[in-house]
Amino acid sequence: MARSVTPRRKMVVTVLAWAVGLLIFFPILWTILTSFKTEADAIASPPLFLGFDWTLENYAEVQERSDYFRHFWNSVVISVGSTLLGLLIAIPSAWAMAFVPGRRTKDVLMWMLSTKMLPPVGVLIPIYLIFRDAGLLDTRTGLVIVLTLINLPIIIWMLFTYFKEIPGEILEAARMDGATLWAEILHVLTPMAVPGIASTLLLNIILSWNEAFWTLNLTAAKAAPLTAFIASYSSPEGLFYAKLSAASTMAIAPILIMGWFSQKQLVRGLTFGAVK
Amino acid sequence: MATTHSRTAARFMISPSVLLLLGWMIVPLSMTIWFSFQSYNLLSPGTEEWIGFLNYEFFLTDPAFFAALSNTLLLVLGVLVITIIGGTLLALLLDQPVFGQGVVRILVIAPFFVMPTVSALVWKNMFMNPVNGLFAHAAKAMGLEPFDFLAHAPLFSVTLIVAWQWLPFATLILLTALQSLDQDQLEAAEMDGAGPFSRFIYIVVPHLSRAITVVILIQTIFLLSIFAEILVTTNGGPGYASTNITYLVYAQSLLQFDVGGGSAGGIIAVILANIVAFFLMRMIGKNLEA
Fold first, then answer.
1. Structural contact between residues B254 and B48, judged by C-beta atoms closer than 8 angstroms
2. Are the beta carbons of A1 and B35 separated by less than 8 Å?
3. Using a CB cutoff of 8 Å and minimum separation of 24, what contacts does B285-290 make?
4. Which residues on A lie below 8 Å from B13 (Cβ)?
5. Axis crossing angle, helix A190-210 with helix A140-164, rounded to the nearest 10
6. Could you give the ipTM of this predicted complex?
């Protein structure tokens, strides 16, 4: 039973919670507002909050000047590509570890997790040199490979925690009825596993979209996703706040929306199931 | 019979992941170790030679290393303190009945989904800039001299930016933990005459301790490797004032092309991360049995 709360107390807490929420959200709100200003309004003193001439020209200009959609498309290909490839490799592994656990399953899982803790600078130089020699620098293929590998442990772990919750009795019943291994996977497990797979997919796309160590170090102009594209605004010339804001808004909007749908899975995915 | 059959199938299904991760770990890591004992600069190819521990000696006695090491620790600690105290308070607030709770939650979680380069640039230009930033406007409005955050307090500024990004993560995990708290226990304590403060100290905090440990360990793993935020705000400067180990290794290897020295730094970063990872793995491993 929820504890009874006086209306007065609820009002006070509501005002406080909204104030704190808006404060934390403010940098994002300010970026979105600035993206609709002219460059002159963007640096007006005192700052203009809502009373300015709304314009869309920054969005047009960002696209025109720096070919925004190419970088957007690079981000899509890299994040979705690495996630799908990762799922393809991880689903069989997680399935096997959840339903046919052996003596060493736990050790294998822990070892996979430990690879995630390897700091990227520890392997930066070899990867850079291997990529240079293999012609993979500044290619989307190269980034898909790297991001698949760095996120593989998270994908396997997330799927494993979801698959473990599927009751084993159902499998036994199917086996009694004479279902083969593949029939078991196709007709019994898949329908039950789809929600877990979908959550994993969503979280992993978000993580790959925002990954900023490998994308910054392994791309130049051609394959640069949005993380690297935005970084190119760090040494700008002239007035640029409004354009920076427009580029930023477009870079974070899709993932912000996806992120809000995956709040619950976020906790589970990022704590490797330690907090549910 | 079915068991033997499915066991073989299981091995077959697990092996691709194992082999890939094994390759990803062993091949580049052994290359880094090998390079770290070489004198190897990309600008003078063909002059590589074995020099033993000289790279480590140079790296570990370089004043930049100590600056980077202390910056790394300060950055990690600063962000942890802000996110855990702030996250606990926020979680307690969001756990209360509130009008429009879903929307408030969405507002609070949003920073976590902003890519590091965007949040760093937005904070750098639109908030911390000493001429046009909002903080400068606020200072002028109060009759104060605007403060150049990134020039005079670079590490503190980077800490603030990173803390803003990670606060939602800590909040979300602590809130999840808080929601599994047994309300009956709180009510019983209240009836026995425990005030809000002692209820918090003796019931809520012990309940949250596990979640807090998880937050500390996971954030530490990510915070040790902070890179993009430093690259786009300060480039590690002024001097080495905001250089962490990750950035130092990057600068050594990809800006100065010193593969040997950079590799030695990379191995040192791996050792540091391993110390943290050791504790994290023990915690998660325990959880797996439960």
1. no
2. no
3. B285/A106, B285/A110, B287/A273, B287/A274, B288/A106, B288/A109, B288/A110
4. 92-93, 95-96
5. 140
6. 0.85
- As a whole number of angstroms, the longest Cα–Cα distance in chain B is 83
**Separation between Cα atoms, residue A154 and residue A168, nearest integer Å:** 23
Domain of residue B236, residue span: 54-114+166-289
Contact between A231 and B121 using a beta-carbon 8 Å cutoff: yes
B264 located within any domain: yes
Asked if residue B58 has pLDDT above 80, the reply is yes
Residue A145 predicted with pLDDT over 60: yes
Query: pLDDT for A30-55, tens place per residue?
Result: 999 999 988 877 777 777 777 777 88
Give the residues across from B38 on adjacent strands. Answer: B50
- The residue with tokens 């949040």 is B119
Cα–Cα dist B234/B240, whole Å: 10
If one counts the domains in chain B, the total is 1
Asked whether residue B158 is domain-assigned, the answer is no
Task: State the pLDDT at residue A83.
Answer: 95
Q: Is B103 among the domain residues?
A: yes
* Nearest CB to A45; choose among B137, B225, B270: B137
Give me the phi and psi of B38, to 5 degrees please: -115, 150
Query: Distance (Å, rounded) from C-alpha B137 to C-alpha A47?
Result: 7
Contact residues for B67 (Cβ-Cβ < 8 A; gap 6+): B239, B240, B241, B243
**In this complex, do A93 and B5 lie within 8 Å of one another by their Cβ atoms?**
no
- Number of neighbouring beta carbons within 10 Å of residue A171: 17
Cβ contact, residue pair B98, A13, below 8 Å: yes
Query: Which pLDDT tens digit goes with each residue over A231-261?
Result: 888 776 666 888 889 989 988 998 888 888 7
CA–CA separation, B275 vs A273, rounded Å? 22
- CB contact (8 A) between residue A230 and residue B121: yes
Query: Is the separation of the CB atoms in B124 and B131 below 8 Å?
Result: no
Say how many C-beta atoms besides its own lie within 10 A of residue B145's C-beta: 9
Chain B CB contacts of A124 under 8 Å are 249-250, 253-254, 262, 266
Side chain identity, residue A227? T
List, as ranges, residues 244-273 from B with C-beta within 8 Å of A. Answer: 245-246, 249-250, 253-254, 259, 262-263, 265-267, 269-270, 272-273
Distance between CA atoms of B281 and A106, rounded to whole angstroms?
Answer: 12
Alpha helices of chain B — where are they, by DSSP H? 2-36, 54-61, 63-94, 101-109, 116-122, 134-141, 149-152, 154-179, 183-191, 196-199, 205-223, 228-233, 245-250, 259-289
Q: The CATH number of the domain where B104 resides is what?
A: 1.10.3720.10
- Three-state secondary structure readout of B35-50: HHCEECECCCCCCCEE
Interface check B164 vs A, CB under 8 A: yes
Determine whether the interchain pair B111/A24 forms a contact, defined as Cβ–Cβ distance below 8 Å. yes
Place of tokens 């020295």: B261
Domains of chain A by start residue, with CATH: 7-58 (no CATH), 67-270 (1.10.3720.10)
B222 falls within a domain: yes
Across the interface, whether the CB atoms of A13 and B96 are under 8 A apart is answered yes
- Residue B181, sorted as left (phi over 0), alpha (psi -120 to 50) or beta, turns out to be beta
